[in-house]
Every structure is written in structure tokens, then in C-alpha cells.
Sequence to fold (163 residues):
Amino acid sequence: MFVRTAGERDLAAIRALLVETWHATYDAIYGAARVTEITDEWHSIASLKTRLTKPNSEFLVADDGKRIGGVAFAEGIGGGEEVVLKQLYVLPGLQGRGIGGMLLDEIIESFPEARAIRLEVEARNTRAVAFYEANGFVRSGDAGEHAGAPGEPTLVYRRSLAG
Fold:
């Protein structure tokens, strides 16, 4: 797999990856019907397309020439001092092979002026929590902005960068 910037020709494959990954990860937490509602709204082709031209952002895919195995999206905020990782997903069958780490590294390299990277994660997504902690993220005391499971805020993690 190699990491590259996402393009319009990738959007259908990115959507398929997100739908598959979300169902594998969140069906047990939210229920399949709710996951379908979320993916139809958040991961529509139109929604994904807006990310391609969003200022101060990076939209990446991990590609082996035959398929897209992972996706990441992040935005620089505060004049580029902080990066907010909005998405990092790897196909369930390819998880544990270093693809997530490659995407995370490239996101960080895409924002050389950044001093920190922040993300939110569903508390019951234990595999993602373990991944981020293994990659140097520390849980912040902040409550997440996005609703996790009903009534539960997401967890906020941060990592300082050399910048």
C-alpha cells in the first residue's frame, strides 16, 4: 500500500470502504439501521466530494493499485497550529497491517507547522482507542463535541508534535 491524496475518481471506493468499516465497527454499538442512516448522510458521494477542495485540509487514501484499503481526513485549525483528525479508517480485513499508521504519519507530515493533533473517538471503539494510544495519543479531559453512543460524549485524544 502507498498513501496518496484522494481524488474524485476515488469517491465511490472511499464510500464503500467507509460503509463497510462503519458497519463492522459500529453495528454492535448503534445498530445496523442507525449506521446505515449515518453512512448515507456523512459518507455520501456529495459529502465526500466537498472534502476534496476544503481549505487547510488533507484527504488521503492508502492504495495498492487495485483497491483502496484505508482513508484519512484532517483539517488544520488555529492558523495551522493544531490538526484535527476527522477520519482514519482501514478496511476490516486489512487492519493490523500498518496501514493506519502510514495514513496517520502522512497526515502529520502534511501539516508541518502543527504543534498538536487532536481527535475524537467513540469510547466503545476499543480497537481505535488502543491504536491511538499506541501511536502516542493521550486522553484529554475535554468532552467530545460529537455524540457517541446515546447520551455519551466521545473521548478526546491529543498528541504533541515536533512542529
Q: What stands out?
A: The chain has five helices and seven strands. The mean pLDDT is 92.
